[in-house]
Amino acid sequence: MSVKHFLHISDYSKEELWELLELSKIVKAKFHNREDHKVFHNKSLAMIFSKPSARTRVSFETGFEWMGGHALFLGPNDIGIGKREAIKDISRVFSRYNDVIMARLFDHEHIIELAEHSTVPIVNGLTDYNHPCQIMTDIFTVWEHLGNIDNAKIVYMGDGNNIVHSWLHLSMRFPLDFVCCCPEGYEPDKDLVEKARECGVSKITITQDPTLAVKDADVIYTDVWASMGQKEEAEERERAFKGFQVNEKLMGLTGKKTLFMHCLPAERDREVTDGVMESENSIVFDQAENRMHVQNAIMIMLSDKWK
Fold this sequence. Notes:
This protein is of the alpha/beta class. The chain is about 40% helix and about 15% strand. The protein is built from twelve helices and nine strands. The strands form two sheets. It has a five-stranded parallel beta sheet, covered by helices on one side. Strand 5 (about 150-155), helix 6 (about 160-170) and strand 6 (about 175-180) form a beta-alpha-beta unit. Helix 2 crosses helix 12 (about 285-300), helix 5 crosses helix 6 and helix 5 (about 130-145) crosses helix 12 (about 285-300). Its main location: cytoplasm. One of its GO terms (cellular component) is cytoplasm. InterPro entries: Asp/Orn_carbamoyltranf_P-bd (IPR006132), Asp/Orn_carbamoylTrfase (IPR006130), Asp/Orn_carbamoylTrfase_sf (IPR036901), Asp_carbamoyltransf_Asp/Orn-bd (IPR006131), Orn/put_carbamltrans (IPR002292), OTCase_ArgI (IPR024904). GO terms for molecular function: amino acid binding; ornithine carbamoyltransferase activity.
């Protein structure tokens, strides 16, 4: 039996991703209207967390239970992916207990191995390599606010990390003007950048100049400078990223009304000022809410539960 997983955005066609966005819109409306949508009645979701996250846990757990199912949280002390037990063993056992598995891990190869041995859908809740649920949420939020995402200029300011990698995967399906503005030495994966450029769908720019990067930006997006597992590099990163803060001056250089996004948690007055976070152009909390709706749509799509 063929099992569908959600591991990388580019595993899906442009048409399939548009169907996911349309489904997310419907699911969000049902949630806001407090309609019953118990498509996962008597079903269970196993949530495996090697990397803790309040938003990921609350959004998946709340969403799955709204859809009639039961979500189980398994933290680092409950399960040692690749340490206490072989990943393929965990995958086979959990597949027999649960109907969907979401995993938020460090090592990307671990999510790949989970999927290889699972007989139920695996959802990538984040790895050090990518964050597909977040970026599908992000483009959904941009679509809500701009109405049209074709050739939207998205400027990511900061580390060329897993967020950037998923934007690059998206750029292979949707036509974007995507800019990653980062200090030298913090660029995204070079092979992935080249692959995205070779697709010829989007314009991809990697630059070290924030002033030039943000010109005509529809969206400026940032993330923390030191993610989980990088805190020992915090002082070094602070020095490297000092000129890449998203502040009122930078937002004023775009030449248009530009939206601000952040995947949270934010370290206010570090990578972004408190003023930008609280500005009328900030859509950070729409973005945060939409994580749940898009993730719900992903689980529905993978499980063929739409009706």
